[in-house]
Design brief:
Elements: E1 9-12, H1 18-28, E2 32-37, H2 57-60, E3 67-70, H3 76-88, E4 91-94, H4 98-104, H5 108-112, E5 119-122, H6 139-146, H7 148-151, H8 166-189, E6 193-196, H9 199-211, H10 227-230, E7 237-238, E8 243-246, H11 251-260, H12 264-267, H13 270-273, H14 275-280, H15 282-292, H16 298-307, E9 312-314, H17 325-330, E10 333-338, E11 342-347, H18 371-375
Parallel strand pairs: 1-2, 1-4, 2-3, 4-5, 5-6
Antiparallel strand pairs: 7-8, 8-9, 10-11
Length: 387
Amino acid sequence: MYEMLKGLRVLDLTAIVLGPYATQIIGDFGAEVLKIEQPSGDLFRTVRPGRSGNMGAGYLNLNKNKKSVVLDLKSAEDKEAFFKLVTTADVVVHNMRPSAAKKLGIDFEALKAYKPNLVYCTAAGYGQDGPKANEPAYDDIIQASSGIASLNANERGEPRFLPTIICDKVGGLHLAIAILGGIAYQARTGKGCQIEAPMFETMVSFLMVEQMAGMSFEPPLGGIGYDRLLSPFRRPFETQDSYVAVLPYNGKHWAAFLRYAEREELADAEWVQDPIERSEKIGKLYEVVAEVMPTRTTAVWLEILRGLDIPCAPINDLTDLFDDPHIQEVGLFQSFNHPTEGQLKTCRSPFRVNGVPEQSDGLAPNVGEQSKEVLSGGSMPVSEGNS
């Protein structure tokens, strides 16, 4: 953790993955994140595996550097306590449907009465000026509606979900950016604002960076989709004994690879060295790679390709990452002892900051662990764990 946002207080009413991922990033940069939970706690606490009922692995991986405060916002007494916290906060963030927030009386207009310069950030499923404004949304739903499942179709054309909660995590990154943008605006102007980062629009814009392609022009210069990514030969390439990723990217890379593969006629071809023509015919070059790679083992190819300065990598499965020499050297995985959950392993924040001392991370809190101290106006630090 780096105390770059020290002194900033964030009231975090988010749950499950998208919101907690965003606010953990803010906490990793030193903000005081108060995780406001209902008495039963964040539902993601119960997702298994876990050693106890309310501290599952997913929850532990999303809620470091936070304090847990239990408030039932349907209770008049607890809602009044929440309003008092708003007066002390810089940011309020939630990922509930705005209609639900309004029903609870915690919408932006209501909270501005307690904190005029409040930064208020939301991440509902859909933007609030469209017909789907009040529809529920989870990762699978947005993978389907945004085009990800279709883009990831198998060879039979059957749509497939990516085996990761990509929409929640990309949405969480956008929500974190929204929070930081709001903080910067507040610091520069002294004013508050409301920022909406809806999942559906976030993922469509995320995909369309490259997939909009020819549809970026009016009239269109071709259809939708980035040709390089959609080539049937763009895949992990089979070697003598396994698979490898290879990405000759520029003309120098391709010339070096094609000469090594004894395809001199292609290495010297004008269309290969012309970046526009090469882009239009990239599938032909990937086909050459697919033909050549089975002639050697993965280990031999990695040595050859690295010698040619061509980007390449072995195909790791997730368990391989724990033994990856680079990950071990940078200390990405860290072991620590949690007072209630015992010995644990975590993936530290990937950020490295020069010029700011690194502090120990705070442990993911139990339900309401800091309620008494926070609601009494105290300033109890989060429990320290791994550094």
